[in-house]
């Protein structure tokens, strides 16, 4: 299986295959041997290069997932490569819509509608599952819609902002 995963504005290509009772993961062409266990529906345990990592995760809207572990959290978007190509084309040529990956509370807004923003610029901070996540602009352009305010509670998939 091949996926494009985006975390904090950075995209990586992952290929995952089951081999010899374990898993082989290729991240941007670099192969990794990974042992994966799922002790419950919301937790993943990974053994990678002799180190153990435990993550809580939850699904959001439109391929979004929320990952937390070691006191940190991040929203991620998981897409198959065809969707990523279509998204890239859309982002370059049209309006990019940022939606809440899961229900939470907007704890801080750093920009105003109508300003120019750069790709990867932090726009707001969303708190979900007791973790704070920076929501960044996926492209450079004008922030044409800022649909939330600090302190507002949002639902999964709710539009947060749009950049054109």
């Amino acid at each position: 299986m091949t996926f494009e995963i985006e975390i904090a504005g950075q995209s990586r290509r992952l290929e995952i295959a089951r081999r010899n009772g374990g898993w082989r993961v290729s991240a941007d062409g670099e192969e990794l041997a990974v042992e994966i266990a799922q002790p419950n529906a919301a937790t993943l345990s990974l053994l990678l290069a002799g180190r153990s990592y435990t993550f809580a995760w939850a699904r959001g809207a439109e391929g979004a997932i929320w990952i937390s572990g070691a006191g940190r959290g991040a929203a991620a978007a998981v897409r198959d490569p065809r969707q990523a190509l279509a998204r890239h084309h859309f982002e370059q040529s049209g309006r990019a819509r940022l939606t809440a990956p899961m229900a939470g509370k907007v704890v801080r807004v750093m920009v105003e509608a109508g300003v120019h923003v750069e790709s990867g610029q932090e726009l707001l901070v969303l708190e979900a599952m007791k973790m704070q996540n920076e929501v960044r602009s996926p492209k450079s352009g004008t922030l044409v819609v800022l649909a939330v305010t600090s302190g507002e509670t949002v639902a999964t998939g709710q539009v947060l902002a749009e950049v054109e």
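The CA atoms of residues 148 and 160 lie 6 Å apart. Helices lie at 81-93.
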